[in-house]
Amino acid sequence: MASKRLRKKIFLTTALVFAGLCFLIKWTSVGICLFCQTKSEDIFLKRDSGHFLLLPHLDCSQNPPFLVALVTSSPTQLKVRVVIRKTWGKKKIIANKLIVTYFLLGTTLNPEAQVAVINESLKYGDIIQKNFIDAYYNLTLKTMMGIEWIHKFCPQSSFVMKTDSDVFVNTYYLTELLLKRNQNTRFFTGFLKLNEHPIRQMSSKWYVSKNEYPRNTYPPFCSGTGYVFSTDVASLVYNISDNIPFVKLEDVFIGLCLAELNIKLENLNSKQTFFPEGLEFSPCRFKKIVTSHFVRPHELLIYWNALERSMDEKCPGG
Ligand SMILES: *[C@@H]1O[C@H](CO)[C@@H](O)[C@H](O)[C@H]1NC(C)=O
Ligand SMILES: *[C@@H]1O[C@H](CO)[C@@H](O)[C@H](O)[C@H]1NC(C)=O
Ligand SMILES: *[C@@H]1O[C@H](CO)[C@@H](O)[C@H](O)[C@H]1NC(C)=O
Fold this sequence. Notes:
Elements: H1 2-29, H2 40-44, E1 52-54, E2 67-72, H3 78-86, E3 92-94, E4 97-107, H4 111-124, E5 127-133, H5 139-153, E6 159-164, E7 168-169, H6 171-181, E8 188-193, E9 221-230, H7 232-240, H8 250-261, E10 274-275, H9 283-287, E11 291-292, H10 297-309
Parallel strand pairs: 2-4, 2-6, 4-5, 10-11
Antiparallel strand pairs: 1-5, 3-4, 6-9, 7-11, 8-9
Helix pairs in contact: 1-4, 3-10, 5-7
Bound molecules: 2-acetamido-2-deoxy-beta-D-glucopyranose (3 copies).
């Protein structure tokens, strides 16, 4: 028995080292080349900027998901991903519909952290990764990677959600509302921002120079903390994204694409359901929302368990 376990351990270690080597070879030979001149245009490529380094274990043509949730996350956020996998991001069937969650990651220059990501991907098979530095100002690249992945690997799904790792998502209510709404093409929803302006103070996290974005108003867009669209929109956005001037704020960039495609943003429900500012938790309140922002991992676990426990209980007002 002991030798069998040892053999298994040796096998797993070898597999991991092998995967790491494959990754390094791939990493240095495609996209940005670290050991030769860096092609500056690569940084601005929104699509087709190299191969996918890591892909989920999934064949979308078999049993296509109703909803694919894509979560922007960074290599070091393993703990958060573990909690999301146990809570709202757990693969499940709601109202006979398959709901799956994948994580969008860039790369890190720390080889140990990268090996840990490969390890995690081997274990869970839910990581989508391409070769760009994982940084806040590369969020547009990360979002476009998700859109490209849907276009190429999961066009059979019905809806896509893009959200962040500090967001609580009520996938039950989202599925219920999407089914009720039944608008399966050119649909885009979330927390609508219809009258936003670029922030020109350099100290702001959202600072955008006149050079990057000359106009004084943003197009309508949905808060990047959580938006949902019919899967056809992914292909439409992917197709035109190269013609859209690059803006590092991913939600604004998607807004520019939607304006070009003449796709209007819509509310999912008559009452507000997306909360980019966050919301105090109560099971009854959270039953009737889709997203709440600024949720820490331990809170996520508590909220989700409380929500699931109270699923069949009545709440005041229905
Ligand atoms: C790989 O994952 C296992 C758990 O699946 C963990 O115990 C191990 O420390 C990880 N190795 C690395 C290099 O992250
Ligand atoms: C975004 O990724 C590219 C490609 O890896 C890298 O050259 C660039 O420095 C990154 N941007 C930031 C702000 O880190
Ligand atoms: C892709 O975009 C081009 C314009 O850039 C348009 O002419 C073409 O019809 C689009 N194709 C699809 C499949 O949307």
